[in-house]
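The material for today's practical consists of a large collection of protein records. There is nothing in a record beyond a sequence line and a structure line. As an example, a complete record with its sequence and its structure tokens follows:
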Amino acid sequence: MSPRTPAEKQHVDRSRFPADEWRLVEKRFSTEDLGVTETLFSVANGYLGLRGNVEEGRESHTHGTFVNGFHETWQIRHAEEAFGLAQVGQTIVNAPDAKVIRLYVDDEPLLLPVAELVDYERSLDMRDGVLRREIVWITPGGKRVRIRSQRMVSFAERHLAVMTFEVTMLDESAPVAISSQILNRQDGEDEYHVRAAAMGEGFDPRKANQFTDRVLHPQMQSADDDRLVLSYSVANSGMTLAVAAEHHMVTDNLVDLHTFVEGDVAKHVFRVDAQPGQPIHLTKTVAYHTSRGVPARELVDRCGRTLDRARRDGLEGTFRAQRTWLDEFWARSDVEIPGQPEIQQAVRWNLYQLAQATARAEGSGVPAKGLTGSGYGGHYFWDTEIYVLPFLTYTSPRYARNALRFRYQMLDAARKRASQVSQLGALFPWRTINGEEASAYYAAGTAQYHIDADVSYALVQYVLATGDREFLEREGVDILVETARMWADLGFWRVNGDDEFHIHGVTGPDEYTTVVNDNLFTNVMARFNLRAAVRALEIIGETDPASRADVDARLGITPAEVHEWSKAATKMSIPWAEHLGIHPQDFHFLEREVWDVAATPADRRPLLLHYHPLVIYRYQVLKQADVVLALFLQGNQFTAEEKLADFEYYDPLTTGDSTLSGVVQSIVAAEVGYQDLALEYFEKSVYVDLANLHANASDGVHVASAGGSWSALAFGFGGMRDHDGHVAFDPRLPASWDSLTFRVTVKGSRLRVHLTADAIELTCETGDGAHVSVRGEQVDVRPGEPTVVALADQGPRRSGRPSMRRLSGNRREDGTLIQATVPHS
């Protein structure tokens, strides 16, 4: 029997979704997984997102039209109040839906679940950013109708979406009606009860909060022969929105237009005497504009200007601009894996999702689900800085800068939040849309203070990779200073033989272990943050003393304060268990009983949906990589032996219940020699949505996992590291792959990295070149001169996966063995 392909391993039905390296193709319509396919075929640009709902607007799992940052606020009702708890929740609002184009032939509606379809194909082309569908429908009266449609959200025009809908009677004439609508569903099927979801509360805390009361209040409505306009204000947040649609029909058939508009619906109904072989072609251009306070009337005017430009450019010009934008995106971002068509398709789909989530997110963050679903309420998390920004920094640095500037714009709110929890400096919210903490469950939310260090890490990575000193001096240093202040104030000195700096009462990335002392990840990253603030001030002072004086005055920095940061970093407590030769995840972690993850039934996963939080918190069990993530991000702070020991200890304890985990485990598994395991983790990550491996793809794309997939390729198999601004490569190509090619941009120069089993070839595609190293050998990469470095081997290769044998040395203080168990159901 031949080995199964990665796609088959991940349960992708290739008879329905054939492998195509540049397109996601669906050959058969099904209602069984509507939510998943709506996510997979979404189109977005970072500002506006349209779920892959069918044009007819009836057969849907979840209708979805989202604008980044467009949200409602609501009062969080805690079971027991306490000082400093988050008070106001935020949830992304489902905007009025302009995707709806309904078709009637002989007054019979096209209903895909029951329609007789003799031909069906839907495809998302990642080269031109267009979702296409073509079907042939046999009506109840036996007439054959061909329907072709296109849908696009423009990367070039931030506020613009374009749809086309073409109907052709193939054999017989018939009366045809096409009803093109803008539909606000707030007053019906989408009204629900609003509540604050948290770990252990409700059915699934990963889903969005939902509403009972009306959210969107109508403002202006208008309609004429060309344009439909609706506008709204949001009940509590006060945000405003306007949406306008312009229609253009081309046909040789006779057409009669009927227009209707009221508060929650606007539509053009085209009644056509359709003759066989005479196409009816409708173009629908749509503009969305939102604001935190601008009157709806002004947003209507903005929509008009957007549609005027689209009319001027014409349909062909709009599609051409989309293709040009994507040609440039793929030139700097593409990853090529020859001979692996299923993986190649999955990789490009994941990279395309990153473009859809970030490209035009100017002035906003990157929601955990992008704009493909309402999962996690449209909130921004630390996922952006650790999993998404590396891809942006090394392929599209301008988008990384936009994301970091968004954090800078949140700095005043972060200062306020720090004050609320009795800290100096600034504390960024664990989850938010408007800058205020929205986590109703502080133990696994607000207590994740590490977000300050995560933001600082991404900022430093960006500055070192791009050389953007202007951003550092004008805005970035403010973030570094205020987060350093928070760490210096949060931690404390304990003298017990040697001075040590400790940080207590925090939660690391692993949400199955909360409110602990000296979480290793937090302490290691806080140390980085403190040192980064000190070094940034030193660099500014060395190169521009006047600018340093301005920074000191603006932020009230004193020499004693900076010295304290440096001392705290040097003396940071880093947990270490000598008897096991590993780093404990936190000070008391090894005192807990071990959870046997391998023996846990599949129907009891993820654990957070089947066990009370207090049960989970009593065990050594991880939702996601914690120490292992530190080994990657701060790899130059650990020895090779420590990395191997830590990985082998924590891997069997990690459930992977979070999609943030697999990519990190893949990267470190590759580095320490578990090559086959690295590929296994990578495949699970790159297929997490395409194969719905976590059974929640219907809530939207896992954007952080998509970003992590790129990191697994570049940092894992490509062996790229970027500590202290020096780019280095130590490749680990999977044995089953012929080659791997990816691009990284360093200080304005784009390098093409081509990896085979025995060599790495570096080519400067744009810019002046770069200085890098390959396994310790310094390499100058110059324009027009490909540099090839031979690789003697791919490093150590370990078979299988780590077992729980290393845990046998895990004993309590009284010497008794901590047994590996699974709690009672």
Observations:
- The chain has 18 helices and 32 strands.
- The CA atoms of residues 506 and 515 lie 4 Å apart.
